[in-house]
Design goal:
The chain is of the alpha+beta class. A 5-stranded antiparallel beta sheet has the order 1-2-3-4-5. The two termini are about 20 Å apart.
Amino acid sequence: MSKIPSRLPWAASIAGFLLMGVAALPCEAAAQDPASFIQQLGSQAIQVAGPSVPPAQRLLMLRQLLDQDFDLPDAAKFVLGPRIRELSPEQRQEFMALFRDSVAAAYGTRLAQYSGEPFAVTGTHQLGGETVVTSQVQRGGKPVELDWHVTDQGGHFLVTDVTVDGVSQRASERTEFAGIIQRNGGRTDALLAALRQQLQSQTGSGS
């Protein structure tokens, strides 16, 4: 069975939140614009991924951040492309849950290396109907560029994509998933099995 490697995340830094409060506070509750939304989201994500947070709690908190602040349904449709039509309604529902948990688990591992490092929004610009919020976080004393694509859905900000040092996360996921399907005889359901296997190896369980 093909395994899915850890991937570079959508996220970043700040401290000062109580851990349970981090997951419970929607970013847009206080954010008045995309830049402040991303400042809060990046700060929360790195705080949640800190080494002092138990792995199970970290995964739960990252799931909550993804559910409330990322457009996961749109991302899931994008990464599968037309192949999503090959899945039954039940398989699509399972893929959405596996995709969310896979992203949360991968981010938890990768975000830990940014824990405690300064995160800062550096600017914004418009791209079509979205706002791109540029930011930096330090890793090993070197700046990493993170560009967050944010959409305003009736006053509710959602992240649609993140580019890390110029590499689109959604595009990387799409290429990776297509490769797994191709290596398994073109069977889209093989991706579900690969995601289950990845989660078992990362969390020690199938949930």
